[in-house]
Amino acid sequence: MLEAMDLNNNFTGSILLSIGNFSSLSVLYIGRNCFQGSIPNEIGSIKNLKQLGIRESGLTGEIPEPPYNLSSLTSISLEFNQLHRSLPLQLANLLPNLRKLYLGGNQLTVPFPNSLINASALQILDIGNNSFIGSVLSDLGRLGGLLWLNLNGNHLGKGHPDDMDFLPSLVNCTNLQKLHINTNEFGGTLPIPDTLGRLPNLKVLSLATNNLIGDVPQSLGNLSSLNILNLAKNSLTGLLPSSLGNLSSLSYFDLSSNNLNGSIPEDIAHITGLKFFSVSINGFSGLIPSPYFNLSSLQHFAVSVNQLTGTLPQDIGLTLPNLEDLIVDVNQFHGPIPISLSNASRLQVVDLDTNKFSGRVPLNLGSLQNLRNLNLGSNKLRAREAEDWGFITSLTNCSNLVILGLNNNSFTGVLPSSIANLSSELQWLVMGGNQISGGIPAGIENLVNLVVLGMDQNNFTGAIPGAIGKLQWLNTLDLSENKFSGQIPPSLGNLSQLNELQLGKNEFWGSIPSSLRNCQNLEALELSNNNFSGTIPIEVFNITSLSRYLDLSHNSLIGTLPIQIGSLTNLGILDVSENRLSGEIPNELGDCQVLEYLYMEGNFFQGSIPPSFGKLKGIRELDLSRNKFSGQFPDFLENLHSAQYLNLSFNNFNGEVPQGGVFNNASAISVAGNNNLCGGIPKLQLPPCPNKSSKRRKQHLAVIIIVPHFNLSYNSLDGKIPTTLGHCSKLQNIGIRRNNLVGQIPDTLGRLPNLKVLSLATNNLIGDVPQSLGNLSSLNILNLAKNSLTGLLPSSLGNLSSLSYFDLSSNNLNGSIPEDIAHITGLKFFSVSINGFSGLIPSPYFNLSSLQHFAVSVNQLTGTLPQDIGLTLPNLEDLIVDVNQFHGPIPISLSNASRLQVVDLDTNKFSGRVPLNLGSLQNLRNLNLGSNKLRAREAEDWGFITSLTNCSNLVVLGLNNNSFTGVLPSSIANLSSELQWLVMGGNQISGGIPAGIENLVNLVVLRMDQNNFTGAIPGAIGKLQWLNRLDLSENKFSGQIPPSLGNLSQLNELQLGKNEFWGSIPSSLRNCQNLEALELSNNNFSGTIPIEVFNITSLSRYLDLSHNSLIGTLPMQIGSLINLGILDVSENRLSGEIPNELGDCQVLEYLYMEGNFFQGSIPPSFGKLKGIRELDLSRNKFSGQFPDFLENLHSAQYLNLSFNNFNGEVPQGASPMPKQEFQKKKTASCSDHNCPSRFYTMFNCTTVFLYYLLDKEFKSQDSIHTFLK
Questions:
Q1: Euclidean distance between CA atoms 1040 and 1038, whole angstroms
Q2: Considering the domain boundaries, does residue 627 fall inside one?
Q3: How far apart are CA 898 and CA 692, in angstroms?
C-alpha cells in the first residue's frame, strides 16, 4: 500500500482528480510544480492523510473547506501559490490535529475566521506576505502551543488603539520561539506591550516597519533566549533600556530608523555573541561606550545619522577582527582615521561620510581585499604632497571596490595617475568640493563600469579627454566649477546612458557639439558660465528626455531659438540668459507646458511675446529683462497664476500694465526701463494711462530725472562691494540686486544720509548685518534677501524711521526677531522668511497698523497669533507664517483685515475649528491651512467652506494633513471659478465628490487622497480642462472610471490607487497625451489592458497597474513607452510571453511583473535595459535556459526570478549601485527567512544567492544563513 508520495518536480497541467484514489496515503508532497487551476476537492478522499504539501505550484482559486474525514491531517503547506480570498471558516473545527499551517506568499485577503482559535494543536502559523486586512483575533493567545507566528507583509491593523490587542494574549503561548509581524499597518498610537517580555522561549522578535510609538519596554530584557531583535523603522522614542544588556543569546540587534535619544547604553556591548548592531537614524548623542569596540564577534556596526561624538579607537581593526561593515556617517566624530582598520581584513563597507575626521587617509587600506564601499566625504581630511595621495595607489589592490567618496574635504595637489588603475568594478568616484588641480588622469577610461564621476568644485585644468566617451555606463558626469578649457569632445555623445551632464563654470570654448543628440537619456544639461560661441545646435532641442533643466546661460551664443525648442515638452527649467541670442521667440516655446523656470534675460531678443506663453500655466519665474522686446505689454501673463517672479524690465513695451495675478504683487514683478508703460498697481509708481491727467504724469517723470541713481542690478558683477561707495553722500538709490557679489556688506554704507533704497538681494554676501545701517535715517527700502548673511539682526535697524520695505529673507540669520524694528510706524513690508529665527514674535509687530506684508515662514518660531490680529493690522495683505511651530486657534478677527490676499499657516500646530467668517475677505487669493491639527467633525464645522464661496478671487485652498472628518459640504462646488489648487489629502473625510465640482473650471490640482471618500467619480470631472494633477488614491471610491477622464488633455498625474474601482480601464485615457504618471493599483480592475494605454507616450514617471485582476497579454505596443521609468503590472492574471519590444523601454529603472501567469523565456532584449535597478519576475511560469545575459545589467540592485521553471547555470557576477532610497521598495517572498529588502538577487528560498554588497546589513551567504536559520 502506497503511504507516501513525493512528486516535487516541474510537472505541468492540473492535479489529477484521481489523486483521491490513493486512500492509504499519509504523506502527499506535490510542490514546486506548474499546475493550473485550484486545489481539487478529491484530496479530501485520502482519509489517512497527515501531511499535505503543494507549495510553489501556481495554484489559484480559494482554499476549499476541508472534509470531515481528514481529521488526521497535521501539516498543510500551500505557500507561494496564487490562492485568494479567505481561510476556510471551519478549518480549525474540521482539522483538530493540525500542527503546521503554511499559507505565506499567496493573495489571501479576508480577515481571520474566528474558528481559528479552536486549532488547539497548532504550532506553526505562517500567513506572511499575503494581503490580509483588518484586525488580528484578540484572543489569538488561546493557541497555547504556538512555536512560530508569521504575519509579515500584510495590511493588518489600521492604526486603531485595539489593533494589537492580540499581542498581550500571546503571553499564554509560553513555547513561542519566533514572532514576525514586520511591515503591516499597525501604528499611530500603538506602543509595544510589556507582556512580550514574558515569553521565555522567544528567539526571534521582529516588529519592524509598523509605525509603533512609545518606549522600548524594559521587560524585553527578560527574553533570555532571544537571538534576533528587530524593531527598526518605527517611531519609538525615549531611551534604550539598559535591561537589553541581559539578552545574553542575542546576535542581531536592529533599532534603526526610530526617534530614540540619549546615549547608547553600554550594557548591550557586554553581549558576547552580538554580530549585528544597528541604531542608525535616531537621535543618540554623546560617546560610544568603549566596550562596543572590544566586541570581537561584531560583524556589522551601524550608528549613522545620529549626534554622536568622540574618536574611533586607534586599535579598532585589532579589537574588531570580524567586522564587515563600519557605518558611522552623519555624526560628529573627529580625529584621525585609525591605521589599524587595515587589520580588519573582512571589511567591506567603511562609511565615515559627514563627520569631522582629519589628517591623512591611511596608506594601508589597500590590504582590505573585500572592500567595496569607502566613503570619506564631507570631513576635514587632507592630501597636499604626492605621498599623501599614496592611499589611491594602495586602493588599486581592492579589486572589488565599487564606491570611492572623497568629496568635500581639504584635498589639494594633483591626482596620482594610479587612479586609473582602481578596480574595474568601480561605479562611483566622487571627489567634488576640494582644491585638487591638474588634469583628468590618462587612462580614466579603464574604469569601464563608472556610473557617477564627480569632480566638481576643484581647480582642475586642461581639456576633457576624448577617451571619457568610452565610459558607456556613465549616468552622471559633473566637471562644473573648475578651470577646464578647450572644446567639448564629440565623443561625449557616445554616453548613451548619461542622465546628467554638468560642465558649467569652466573655460570651455567653441561650439556645443551636435553629437549630444545621441544622449537620449539626458535629463539635465548644464553648460553655463563658459565661452561657448556659435548657434545652439538644433540637435540639442531634439533631446526630448531633457526634463530637469537645460542651462546654456552666460556664454556668447548667437542666432535664434529654433522652432524645435517646442519638442522639450518635459523640461522644467530653461536658462539661455546672458548670451547674444536674437530674433523673435518661437511660438512653439509655449508647448513646453511643464516649464517652471524660464530665464532669457540679457540677450537681443526682439518682437512681441508670443501669446502661446499663456499656456505656461506652471511657470514660477519668468525673466525676459534686458532684451529688445517691443509692442503691447503682454497682459495675458496676468493669467499665469503660479508665477512668483516676473521680470520684463529694460525692454520697449508700451501700454497698460495689468493689476491682476502676479502683477498685483509689486515685490514679484519688475517692469522698470520700459518708458512707455502706464497703469499697474500704485506700488509700481507708473504714470496713469492716457485717460488720466497728463500733467501729473510729467511731474512724476521729472522726479525720476533728478534722483541720483546707482543701479547695476541683473548683471554678472563679482567681487566685493567697494567701501568707497560710502563716500557718495548724495546717493539716494543703490541697486545691485542679482549679481555675484561676495564678501561682507561694508560698514561705510551707513554714512549715506540721503539713501532711500538699498537693494543688495540675490548675491553671495556673508557676515553680519552691519550695525551702521541703522544710521540711514532716510532709508525707505532695505532689501538684503537671498544672501548668506549670518548672526543676529542688529537692534539699531529700529532707528530706520523712514523705512517702509524690509526684506532679509533667505539668509542664515538666527536668534530672536528684534522688537525695535516693530516701532517703525510706517513699515509696510516685513519679510525674514527662510532663516533660523526662534522664540516668540514680539507683540509690537502685531500692533503695526501700517503693515501690509508680514512673512516669517520657514523658521523655528513659536507662540500663538493674537486673537485681535485682524483689528490691529487692518492693512495686512499677506500673512505668511508657514513652516514654524505656532499653535493655538486661528484668530477669528482675521476677517477684519479686509485687504488680506494671502493667509499661509501651513506646517504648524494650529488647532481647533477654521473660523466661519473668512468669507468676508473679498481679496483672498491663497488660503493654506495644510499640515496642522485643525478639525471639522459636524456639518457646522464645515461652514467655513460655505463662507469662502464669497471669496471670488480665491486661487489656492490647502486643507491637507489635518483632522477633518465628516462629509464635504455641497457648497465646495460654489467656490471661486478662479480656484486652481484644491488640496485636502491626508484627513478622514467621507462621503462622495460633491455634485457641481465641474464648476471649478480653472482647477489645476485636485487632491483628495488618503481619506475615506466613497462612491463613483462623477463624469463631469472631465470638464476640468486645465486639471494637471488628480489624486484620489487611498480612499474607498468604487464604480468604473468614467471615460470622460480622457478629456483632461492637460493631465500630468492621475492617482487612483488603493480604492475599490472595478470594470475595465477606459481606452479614452489615450487622449491624455501629457500624462507622465498613471497609478491604478490595488483596485478590482478586470479585462485586458487597453492597447491605448501603451500609446500614451508621455508616460515617463510611472505606470502602476498592480494588484488588480487584469488578464490577457502585454501587447507589442508597450515598446512605445520609451521614456517610462517605472512599470508595475504585478499581482494580476496576465499571461503569455513578454513581448520583445519591452526591451525598447530603455529608460526603465523599476520593472515589477511578479505574481502573474507569464510564460516562455525572458526576451534577450531585456539586456538593453541598462538602467534597470529593480526587476521582479517571480511567481510566474517562465521557463527555459536561465537568462544569464541579465548578469550584464550593472545598475541592477534587486533581481527576483524565484518560483519559475528556469534551468541551467546561475551566473556569479553582480554589480549593484550604492545605497539609496528607492521610489518603490520590494521584499522577496521568503516564508521562513527575514530577508533584507535591498541589493540582492533571489532565485528561490531554499538556496539564497545574496549579492548584497553595499547597504548596511549582511554581506555574505554564510552570515545570512547564520543569522536567519
A1: 7
A2: yes
A3: 28
Stated pTM of the model: 0.59
- Whether the pLDDT of residue 797 is over 60: the answer is yes
Q: Is the distance from CB of 1082 to CB of 1107 less than 8 angstroms?
A: yes
**What Å distances lie between residue 328 and 290, 333, 425, 434, CA to CA?**
15, 8, 24, 22
Detail the DSSP E strand segments found in 290-414: 300-302, 307-308, 325-327, 334-335, 349-351, 356-359, 373-375, 380-383, 403-405, 410-414
Q: Are residues 574 and 613 in the same domain?
A: yes
Indicate the number of domains in the chain. 2
Q: Are residues 697 and 716 in the same domain?
A: no
* 830 and 845 co-located in one domain: yes
Residue-wise pLDDT tens digits, 1131-1179: 998 999 999 999 999 989 999 999 998 999 999 999 899 889 899 999 9
Q: pLDDT digit string (tens) for 461-500?
A: 999 999 999 999 999 999 999 999 999 999 999 999 999 9
Residue 747 and residue 665 share a domain: no
Signed CA dihedral, 191, 1257, 380, 430: sign only: negative
Q: Nearest CA to 941 among 974, 973, 914? A: 914
Q: Counting Cβ atoms within 10 Å, is residue 647 exposed (0-12), middle (13-18) or buried (19+)?
A: buried
Do 718 and 854 lie in a common domain? yes
Find all residues with CB under 8 Å of 1269, minimum gap 6, and list them. none
Question: Over 186-219, what HEC string results?
Answer: CCCCCECCHHHHHCCCCCEEECCCCCCEECCCHH
Would you say residue 1139 lies in a domain?
A: no
Predicted pLDDT of residue 91: 77
Mean pLDDT, to the nearest integer, of 430-455? 95
CA distance 107 to 969: 38
Residues 6+ apart with CB under 8 A from 706: none
Tell me which of 670, 701, 732 is where a domain ends.
Answer: 701
**Contact yes or no for 496/515 (Cβ under 8 A):** no
Please tell me whether residues 756 and 679 are part of one structural domain. Answer: no
Q: What is the C-alpha R_g of the chain?
A: 33
- Distance, CA of 13 to CA of 919 (rounded, Å): 68
Q: How many CB atoms lie within 10 A of CB 632?
A: 11
What kind and span of H or E run contains 91?
A: helix 91-94
Confidence of residue 1215 (pLDDT cuts 50, 70, 90): very low
Q: Say whether both 712 and 669 belong to one domain.
A: no
Decide if 694 is inside a domain: yes
Instruction: Quote the CA–CA distance of 1222 and 1069 in Å, as a whole number.
Output: 28
> Which residues have C-beta within 8 Å of that of residue 1220, sequence separation ≥ 6?
none
SS3 content of the chain, % helix, strand, coil (to 5): 20, 25, 55
Please indicate, yes or no, whether residues 721 and 697 belong to a single structural domain of this protein.
no
Host domain of residue 641: 548-701
| CA–CA distance, 1037 with 993 (Å, rounded to integer) | 9
**What are the φ/ψ torsions at residue 1079 (nearest 5 degrees)?**
-130, 110
pLDDT of residue 1262: 33
Q: Which of 656, 678, 701 is the last residue of a domain?
A: 701
Q: Give domain status of residue 804, yes or no.
A: yes
Q: Distance between CA 375 and CA 330 in Å, rounded?
A: 11
Residues in the chain: 1269
In sequence order, the β-bridge partners of residue 148 are: 124, 178
Long-range contacts of 916-919 (CB under 8 A, 24+ apart): 916/943, 916/944, 916/947, 917/892, 917/947, 918/894, 918/944, 918/947, 918/948, 918/951, 919/895, 919/944, 919/946, 919/947, 919/948, 919/949, 919/950, 919/951
Within 781-936, residue ranges assigned H as helices are 869-872
For the chain, how long is the longest CA-to-CA vector?
118
**DSSP code, position 818:** P
- Amino acid identity, residue 1138? I
CA angle 645, 651, 653 (to 5 degrees): 90
Q: In CATH, what number is assigned to the domain containing residue 746?
A: 3.80.10.10
